[in-house]
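re the bet — no i am not wrong, look at it urself. input seq straight from the record:
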Amino acid sequence: MLVFMKAEGIYKEAAERYMKKGEIGRVSYPIEFEGKKYREIVYNRVFLGTIRKGILGVVFITEDGKAVTDGRIIKELAALAYNMEVFFDETYAGSIPRAITPEKEIQKEERDFAQMKRGLEILKNENVKGTDVVESILSKLPGLKRENNRVLKELVDRVKSFENDSVVFNKSIMDEIAIYYRRALLKNFQRVKLIAKGINYYDEIKREAARRKKKFKYRFMGRDVVEGLTKLEYGINYLKRVINVYSKVIDMSEEEYMRFLREMDRENINHKISMVRA
């Protein structure tokens, strides 16, 4: 869904009052606050007919095209507008359906993990540390990913239920969708925390797997052994990349993580407020 559209009529007139050279103004779907409807106008630079992603300015207007100047109302509208964009705009919300992992991919992951476990068995028999921990992680990840899919689908379905021209975004809708959104964030965080349980063992296991697969002894043990060690090495790289992506939050509790996300939201809302043109 596109939250912003071409500004026409009174919205075009309102947009042009605050527009700078080389910009285009787009107007949002309506937002309701305290029983009144408002819209957000965002300004982007245009280059060779292409709209650049970075927003350069913002104006909030009433339904009849008048700019909102009341600081309290602007603050509330900025919060509503930000959440509307996160939940509905393709730039943000478009990533939510893409985060759902197809069942075929999960099944392939299960087959890969089965091969990785074969490599872990070799290392376990030779007393390499952490093999039990990593094996437990691999056993739980597919199930957790399916749980994550279920929660994401619930979020997508709830968002879609509001995607029609007659719906006006307001705090009630925002709060309802936020419940599903938080569930999805927490479920993904649980997956990351599970992967992080092996953080002290991944490097050694990867190193030992790479070292053993080069030796003739292991090559003579069969193709499945070499493939298991190879798959283990590459699989560990994936797990480490996940940890690197979430390195700032990896040691947080769920409560701390949610506070961290709320603080990020506040910063983004304040940034939007700072771009309001007068």
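see?? The chain has two domains: 4-96, 101-272. told u. also The first helix runs from residue 10 to 17. so pay up
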